[in-house]
TrEMBL record:
Keyword Hydrolase tagged: yes
Alphabetical UniProt keywords: Glycosidase, Hydrolase
Limits of the Glycosyl hydrolase family 13 catalytic domain: 13-404
Protein name as annotated: Alpha-glucosidase
Organism: Cohnella hashimotonis
Length: 547
């Protein structure tokens, strides 16, 4: 069977504006990414996911595109971009581009035309509706604003936006829109990229007639609507066919069964899902519950469609802070979470900085924050009279800026990220938490990620192995214990997500078998011969080969 290259891959996400600033303007840039490719390649990763670099007013950090085929000047030029692609390929890695086709910037020429008059030829490229009862056409919220509708006084109609007012949704019902998007995609593919990460792709279809929502706060009505998969099948046929690429769809709120509609190998839609629940707070046991819910994918659907494994990205706060322990056990916790993500079925995604255990932040003032989602919510809530300090405190843990602070390269000023004034504050812990420090330590988080990724390259069981949970984990909700099996190779993974030691009865299936420790996140290992139980230390992870 012809191997599919991306199934055995590890992905590294580059949020370029916070990666490395080569010209001292305070923003990371494409030249900076080029200069730091050795760091990425040093991990052993295969694919780089580059967040949007297209021309944009940059209100949502590039997710408000005003020209799909020009590079944002603060990121660099198309010539720099071409050099980045060549350098990535020269190192044997692949580059996938983040692409936003659910909406554009309100300054995209398409929207400027569309809003200019009701009979403009591009009017129907966006979603316009008359007022209802003197107000918005329905009661929908958007992700970033109290209403998903904005009145355009000049033409006395409302336009629809799933996110910020400045991000009007394209009207995917319009074949002209679809054709324009497919043509643009093919021009990028013809430049030699290796695929796309498709932003908010589950939102392309909207409910017919735009009916009121029973619960406007429960924003799921914006996603997974009828017609979506018709668009994705057409996109695959019209844009992706014929290219040896990988397409990754970002989709919140999909169950494993729904997920298979996007990426089932017989569906002709996308290759891989980048899925998550958008929860206000998802403590570690909820995250474990979610990973266990995904079990239906691993046990029933795995092999029929591909999935990602991640816990943080540029939207979701640092995993060691949100789901682990970013204090006493930060190093063990970072390694534990990585062990889970790299041993569960799925393609692991590493978000820049995760490989050194970077943590979330708490800035003292709303002025220190950049995230439009957070700032809009802060304005909305304080505008309704909520105490500003209480509002700030409630929004800080989930601010997307938690994961957007600049990469911490070393303990020099600004963590070696910029010689200028950084666009967002550096995390204060950079002096003791940085790449240089990890590179000098054979037991660092970075070194552990290298060993994990090397294990994957040497052992197909991590990619293709059958997954089976060991019921013994249920003795403590912070435990997670499972096996991966491929032919005669069987691995046992033990994880303790708690701050306390946890006793685990050796799983039945280990009886009479030899255990060989392949990788653990504690230097010293305890003797295990013949014992009935083992004690997992706080945030301890172990990968055993069963002989
Ligand atoms: O993080 C979320 C809400 O706070 C998610 O709902 C997220 O905004 C949504 O799933 C889509 O995210 C993507 O599209 C957004 C952009 O702001 C995000 O950075 C991007 O990942 C609009 O383009």
């Amino acid at each position: 069977m012809k191997k599919i290259w991306w199934k055995e891959a590890v992905v590294y996400q580059v949020y370029w504006r916070s990666f490395y600033d080569s010209d001292g303007d305070g923003f990371g840039d494409l030249e900076g990414v080029i200069q730091k490719l050795d760091h990425i390649q040093g991990l052993g990763v295969d694919i780089i996911w580059l967040n949007p670099v297209y021309e944009s007013p940059d209100l949502d950090n590039g997710y408000d595109i005003s020209d799909y085929e020009a590079i944002m000047p603060k990121a660099g030029t198309i010539e720099t971009w071409d050099r980045l692609l060549a350098e990535v390929h020269r190192r044997g890695m692949k580059l996938i581009m983040d692409l936003v086709v659910n909406h554009t910037s309100d300054r995209h020429p398409w929207f400027v035309e569309s809003r200019s008059s009701r009979d403009n030829p591009k009017r129907d490229w966006y979603i316009w509706q008359d007022a209802k009862d003197g107000g918005p056409p329905n009661n929908w919220r958007s992700y970033f604003a109290p209403s998903a509708w904005e009145l355009d006084a000049a033409t006395d109609q409302y336009y629809f936006h799933s996110f910020a007012v400045e991000q009007p949704d394209l009207n995917w019902r319009n074949p002209e829109v679809r054709e324009a998007v497919y043509g643009m995609m093919k021009r990028w593919l013809d430049r030699g990229i290796d695929g796309f990460r498709l932003d908010a792709i589950a939102l392309l279809a909207k409910p017919d007639g735009y009916p009121d929502a029973e619960k406007p706060e429960d924003i799921r009505y914006l996603t997974n609507n009828p017609g979506l998969h018709d668009y994705l099948r057409e996109m695959n046929a019209r844009a992706f066919a014929g290219y040896d690429i990988v397409t990754v769809g970002e989709a919140a709120y999909v169950t494993p069964e729904e997920g298979l509609k996007f990426v089932g190998e017989d569906r002709g839609e996308l290759d891989m899902l980048f899925h998550f629940e958008v929860c206000d707070e998802m403590p570690v046991w909820d995250m474990l519950r979610y990973k266990r819910i995904q079990r239906r994918w691993y046990e029933g659907l795995w092999g029929k469609g591909s999935n990602s494994q991640f816990l943080n990205n540029h939207d979701h706060t640092r995993q060691v802070t949100r789901y682990g322990n970013d204090g006493t056990y930060r190093v063990q916790s970072a390694k534990l979470l990585a062990t889970m993500l790299h041993t569960l079925p799925g393609i692991p995604y590493i978000y820049q900085g995760e490989e050194i255990g970077m943590t979330g932040v708490r800035f003292p003032s709303i002025e220190d924050y950049n995230d439009i989602a957070m700032k809009n919510r802060y304005a909305e809530e304080t505008g309704m009279g909520r105490d500003p300090a209480t509002t700030l405190a409630s929004l800080q843990p989930l601010s997307r800026d938690n994961s957007r602070t600049p990469m911490q390269w070393d303990d020099s000023p600004n963590a070696g990220f910029t010689a200028g004034d950084p666009w967002i504050k550096i995390n204060h812990n950079y002096r003791e938490l940085n790449v240089a420090r990890d590179l000098a330590d054979p037991d660092s988080i970075y070194a552990y990620y290298r060993r994990l990724i090397a294990l994957r390259k040497e052992n197909e069981v991590m990619t293709y192995g059958e997954f089976e949970e060991c019921p013994e984990w249920a003795e403590d909700e912070h435990l997670y214990v499972y096996t991966r099996t491929l032919n005669d190779v069987s691995w046992l993974i033990l994880l303790n997500h708690g701050d306390n030691a946890a006793e685990l009865r050796w799983p039945e299936r280990t009886k009479g078998r030899k255990l060989r420790l392949l990788l653990g996140n504690y230097p010293e290992q305890v003797a295990e011969d013949g014992a009935e139980v083992t004690v997992l230390r706080p945030h301890e992870a172990r990968i055993y080969a069963l002989a």
